[in-house]
């Protein structure tokens, strides 16, 4: 049993050493994690380049940071708990086992001494029995000697005395015999007590005390480990609660709050001319169109995904057309937007801007940017009235939403594409399927009249604009814009800011009336 005690003590001693070693590794791991966290947490929570100042309170608002901090804290606390367990094993298990071992050895020495005493007492009783036996044997020899002497002196005058001596010797022999019998009984009692009571009680008491103390100490060790596991479990529960509290939405809002920055969408793509074909007509149209808006407000062309079929295979711009390759209708030049046929996606783009394209004939001069403006002052007679038969929902910017039983004015009849251009009561224009409308009155002859800019006196509104950029007039209907100079806007539904999209009408300091790009000036 003593050897087992030593083995258990050494076992817990080694266990305590392992706990300390494990605690040291956990502490090193937690320290390394803290250092890495300090380097990475800002980028993780607020991004690599936060747009506004931050402090530790901002980091502390992150639920992810709280969970990570709790995780590292749990590892640190666990390392301390392992150190505490190692100390407890040393103080409450290893040392008590060593003390129990020493106490057992002391008790064992005392038990040996007590055993020696019991053995000596037993041997003394055994010796008394042997002495009684020896005395009894001697008395028996004396009795026998006196008996033989009496027999020899039967006829002798000493026979009576020999008889008396014989009888006396028999009495002494019987006394010795009684003493011997008593010593035998005493020795048997001592022997029985020694082997039945003294030795078993001595051995049992020694083992019982040792085993009882051993169990108590080992149970204390188990209790320490149970408490240690409960403490570790509390750390795990706290970490689990912190992880459950992580809110991705809150952390995302925090990240957005510290990363708000000015944003501009990517620039639009510009037309790139072909490297193998010089598309003179289209490039001239695009150049002229872009020139009227300036760099601050680039054009937004309609998508070319919607293209109205046409039978004309020659025309690329609305101009005089001598005929169709396939016998289609010819184009009639006009300043009216309604006379421009939808020949291709290119023309659709110009139509989306309200550009009145110039004639492509060689005799025409190069158009000025103002000639492409959507002239809101151009009066256009309403076409024939038509009734809408079915609801129509537009699927592209070219089309117009109409409802059944409403009335519209036909601006351009079906040219074979299956579409007509109409205007509703609010003045909105667009394409609808030709089969969705029916005429309710005869179509009057279109009579478009374009009101040109007058060089005479215009009524002004008293509203002024100041030039932001220099602009040189490129047509007789335009006026120059100089940086810092004032221009007084004209009045009326077709003047001033109502003239056209991207073009305003006004009177310069010299009294000249004309139009100019609206994005080259600012209102005063």
Automatic annotation (TrEMBL):
Keyword Coiled coil recorded: yes
Cross-referenced InterPro entries: AH/BAR_dom_sf, Bzz1_SH3_1, F_BAR_dom, FCH_dom, SH3-like_dom_sf, SH3_domain
Keywords: Coiled coil, SH3 domain
Listed GO CC annotations: cortical actin cytoskeleton
Gene3D superfamilies, sorted: Arfaptin homology (AH) domain/BAR domain, SH3 Domains
Domain of life: Eukaryota
Residue span(s) of domain F-BAR: 1-251
Residues covered by the SH3 domain: 381-442, 460-524
Region (Disordered): 324-343
Skewed-composition ranges (Polar residues): 331-343
Listed GO biological process terms: actin cytoskeleton organization; regulation of actin filament polymerization
Record keyword Protein biosynthesis present: no
Protein's recorded name: SH3 domain-containing protein
Organism: Pycnoporus cinnabarinus
Lineage: Eukaryota, Fungi, Dikarya, Basidiomycota, Agaricomycotina
């Amino acid at each position: 049993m003593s050897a087992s005690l030593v083995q258990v003590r050494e076992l817990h001693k080694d266990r305590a050493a392992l706990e300390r070693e494990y605690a040291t590794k956990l502490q090193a791991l937690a320290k390394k994690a803290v250092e890495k966290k300090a380097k990475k947490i800002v980028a993780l929570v607020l991004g690599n380049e936060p747009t506004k100042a931050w402090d530790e309170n901002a980091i502390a608002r992150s639920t992810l940071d709280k969970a990570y901090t709790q995780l590292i804290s749990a590892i640190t606390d666990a390392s301390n708990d392992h150190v505490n367990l190692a100390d407890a094993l040393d103080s409450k298990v290893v040392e008590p086992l060593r003390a129990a071992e020493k106490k057992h050895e002391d008790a064992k020495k005392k038990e040996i001494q007590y055993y020696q005493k019991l053995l000596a007492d037993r041997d003394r009783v055994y010796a008394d029995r042997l002495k009684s036996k020896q005395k009894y044997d001697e008395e028996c020899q004396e009795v026998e000697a006196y008996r033989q002497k009496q027999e020899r002196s039967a006829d002798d005058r000493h026979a009576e005395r020999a008889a008396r001596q014989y009888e006396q010797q028999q009495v002494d022999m019987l006394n010795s015999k009684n003493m011997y019998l008593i010593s035998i009984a005493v020795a048997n009692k001592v022997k029985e007590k020694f082997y039945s009571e003294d030795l078993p009680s001595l051995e049992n008491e020694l083992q019982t005390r040792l085993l009882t103390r051993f169990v108590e100490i080992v149970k204390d060790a188990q209790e320490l480990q149970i408490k240690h596991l409960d403490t570790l479990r509390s750390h795990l529960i706290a970490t689990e609660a912190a992880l459950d509290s992580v809110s991705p939405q809150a952390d995302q809002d925090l990240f957005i709050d510290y990363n708000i920055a000015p944003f501009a969408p990517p620039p639009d793509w510009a037309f790139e001319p072909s490297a193998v074909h010089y598309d003179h007509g289209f490039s001239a149209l695009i150049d002229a169109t872009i020139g009227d808006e300036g760099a601050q407000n680039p054009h937004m062309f309609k998508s070319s995904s919607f293209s109205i079929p046409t039978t004309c295979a020659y025309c690329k711009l609305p101009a005089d057309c001598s005929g169709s390759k396939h016998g289609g209708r010819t184009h009639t030049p006009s300043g009216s937007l309604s006379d421009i046929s939808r020949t291709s996606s290119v023309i659709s783009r110009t139509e989306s801007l309200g550009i009145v394209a110039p004639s492509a004939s060689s005799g025409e001069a190069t158009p000025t940017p103002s000639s492409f403006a959507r002239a809101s002052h151009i009066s256009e007679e309403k076409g024939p009235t038509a009734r809408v038969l079915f609801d129509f929902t537009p699927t592209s910017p070219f089309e117009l939403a109409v409802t059944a039983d409403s009335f519209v004015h036909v601006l351009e009849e079906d040219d074979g594409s299956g579409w007509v251009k109409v205007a509703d009561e609010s003045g909105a224009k667009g394409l609808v399927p030709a089969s969705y409308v029916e005429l309710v009155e005869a179509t009057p002859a279109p009579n478009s009249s374009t009101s040109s800019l007058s060089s005479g006196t215009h009524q002004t509104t008293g509203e002024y604009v100041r030039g932001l950029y220099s602009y040189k007039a490129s047509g007789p209907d335009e006026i120059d814009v100089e940086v810092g100079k004032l221009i007084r806007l004209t009045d009326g539904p077709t003047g001033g800011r109502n003239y056209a999209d991207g073009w305003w009408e006004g009177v310069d300091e010299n009294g000249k009336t004309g139009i100019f790009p609206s994005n080259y000036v600012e209102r005063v």
